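Morning F.,

Quick status update on the modeling queue. The single chain you submitted on Monday has been processed. Sequence for confirmation:
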Amino acid sequence: MKRFFQSLQAKYMAIILVALFLFQAAYLLVAMLAMGLQEDISGEKNKNESDPSHIEEKWHADAAEVENASSESIHKLFSKWKKDYPEASMFWVDEKGNVLEQLDVKGDLPANWTPAFTAKFIKERYGGDPFTVISFIGGDEKNGFIVLEIPRNLFLPPIVEVTEKYGLFLGAGLLLIISLFIIVSFLFFRGIRKRLLQLQEAMERRDMDNNLPIGIDVQNNDEIGQLERTFNEMILELKESKQREQEEEQLRRELIANLSHDLRTPLTKINAQTYSIAKENLSPAGKQAVKALETSIVNIDRLIENLMSYTLLMASKHKQELIELDAVRFVRESLASWYPVFEKESFEVNIELEPFEVKWLTDPMWLGRIFDNILQNILRHAKDGLYLKVATESTDEYDAIVVIDHGKGLKNSSNEKGAGIGLSIVDMMVKGMKLEWDIDSGDEGTIIKILRKH
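Structure tokens below.
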């Protein structure tokens, strides 16, 4: 239960319940205010006898009681009614159609009333606004008639008057409550959004030491707080996993280093014994066997070297020193040491190297290792093509050194093994020096480009 009350759902339900309470309170307040005003207005109107039928009867009665149709008596009657109905207007028309007395009449009255105008006036006022009552003075048409006019809004129900008078304030109060609910809801959801954005930002930040996300402070125990806590737990698990991985990687590197050392020691002894055997008087078959043995020793030593290099590169421990280098000249010098080897294997070697305008920022040791691995791979896997071409290629976008052979391609199997790790070392060293490379291998040969983009 405690967990529920700390949740976002419980908080928003509380906001809704408070809003409903405020709506109910506002409704009751408006109802009480309307009833009080209605009672006040109703009491006032009862006091002034606001019933239209009663007013009409009373006006006829008061007009009939006037015995002497004089200005004094009519003025007295008008003054009496004016006290009870301040908004009323009255006038007297004698038997000749002349307006003799008027009080608060709105608009201009004709000085002389003809029978036609009188009939028109009665027709227009019947059931209209203002409420109009016409009575003969003393009940005799010879004395003329008096007219009472009262605005009809005085006869509206009290609740209608309350609405007309105070409706704007009541509507403003309800609008204020609704606006308050909307503002509180907006602030509630804005707080949720802000916390989610903070969590997203924490996911995008990385620790400089281990490149893992950084934990976030958990301030609440609601759903987002539980998500933040789970996120922190996930970071701890990632850190522990990465630490275990680093420890395993360290053990693997040490194992490979120890194995390399342990393998090279007997390999050196085998090489020495092979050299001694080669000096003996051997048959042609024996000499061929010794030669094959020497080749195998060289290949094993080279595989061990590649394995060590690959391990160091994977651990980012391989030393690198970048300098500005004339790449074409460097490749030409490297090929000079390899040329006798390819000539011995009866390769056709084609060299087409043109100087580049810009020097390359590279590590000579790494660049030499790259081309050694590529050329060694050709010797081991493209002997059947007996062709090697090393050329330069320059465009507006890049300068490249291109190595071409006519072997069966990397997809086809060969008698030699170990090409995969050699090309993996090439890939890591090329990318480590911010260069690029492209390899296109098929049944008719392989083309490898080492590129430096402008």
